Amino acid sequence: MSSHHFVKEGQEPALIIANGEACSGELLGQLLEWSPLVVVLDGAIYRALDHQIKIDVVLGDFDRAIDIETLVKDQFPIEIVHTPDQNKTDLHKGIEFLIERGYKAVNIIWATGRRADHHLANLTEIVRYKDQIQIVLIDDYSRVFVLPPQFEKWYAKGTPLSIIPVGTAGGVNTSGLKYELTNDTLVLGERISSSNEANEDGFVKISYTSGHLLMMECHD
């Protein structure tokens, strides 16, 4: 895997590599090519090195044995960020690191699959940062992001779309979907809008008045 290209800060999202299920080499290469900063969480460091990724920042509590001296030598220049706070996950720390550095957007890979608790937490807890940074979780099958209160995007007919509440979301209205919602309330575990799809080529519009919604753009 070649190193990422130089991209001016602010033009493209940063990239966080977590420690869930790995994505395809093709997807990894596409994201690396246009990421101005690559942050690897410490639990994934040796997996990332196996993919010959040029790392800009390795971040975490370093509760695993990592040969820092060799890492710095082989990956120079690289920034080592020790974040020992046990009340936050390394993914939270990575997102907050980027917010502090002024990044407006981040793509996150290897954050789904593997442990079910980590998978669920990573999918749902991104809502806490919705007003600070644009986050997209990406794997080989889905793109997941928090919907703003008013959302509009063009999709091809039949594009699989799932609208998932984090807790309860009220006043949900849609247009352009096969199964429309009109002033609906969605509740995780009771009523969601999964396996919906774009009804025609054109814009899908979604709005809601309370709570949090995730958009999952999916493909098989």
Could you describe the 3D structure shown?
33% of the residues are buried. The protein has helices spanning 25-33, 45-50, 68-75, 90-100, 116-124, and strands spanning 14-17, 38-41, 57-60, 79-82, 105-109, 134-138, 142-146, 150-155, 160-165, 168-175, 184-187, 193-197, 202-207, 213-218. The mean pLDDT is 90. 20% of the residues lie in helices and 33% in strands. It has two domains: 14-140, Thiamin pyrophosphokinase, catalytic domain (Rossmann fold), CATH 3.40.50.10240; 150-218, Jelly Rolls, CATH 2.60.120.320. With 220 residues, it is an alpha/beta fold. The longest helix has 11 residues, at 90-100. The chain has a ten-stranded mixed β-sheet with strand order 4-3-2-1-5-6-7-14-9-12, sandwiched between helices. A four-stranded antiparallel β-sheet has the order 8-13-10-11, with no helix packed on it.
